[in-house]
Amino acid sequence: MDPKVFVWLGGAHSLAFAVFHLGFWKLFGWRQTLRTATVADRAILQILNLRLIYVLLGVAVLCFAFTDELLHTGLGRALLLGMSLFWVGRTIEQFVFLRINRPFVHVLTALFVVGAALFAAPLLAPQP
Q1: Which of 21, 50, 84, 91 has fewest C-beta within 10 Å?
Q2: pTM for this prediction
Q3: What does each C-alpha distance from 100 to 34, 57, 97, 120 come to in angstroms?
Q4: Is 29 left (phi over 0), alpha (psi -120 to 50) or beta?
Q5: % residues pLDDT > 70 (the chain)
Q6: At what angle do helices 39-65 and 3-22 cross, to 10 degrees?
Q7: Per-residue DSSP letter, 74
Q8: Where are the alpha helices (DSSP H) in the chain?
């Protein structure tokens, strides 16, 4: 398969997770549930979520707008490797911090593995 397709799929994956994170306030009822957290914890959790959304949207834009640069420059390939390792790390953290045996959690774990594979696949393709 053309390595560009993997980069585009990685962009779609990042975009989908950004949209998913936008829904966290409603999905997890943060308006209510975060009331019991300290002011600092409440702020940190929401700020980190917003920054993650920003990063994921940025990665999606890079995948769609700078596909060739990601595939054919050292910096681009480093970014692809970094994103693959991001998803590998997120998969590991899932087992360490979210030990919940529910189908949705297992689907998320599988999607993290998919992200790692999508960003790694172009790095394994032969260079022209």
Answers
A1: 50
A2: 0.94
A3: 20, 28, 9, 28
A4: left
A5: 99
A6: 150
A7: H
A8: 3-22, 24-27, 30-33, 39-65, 67-72, 74-97, 103-124
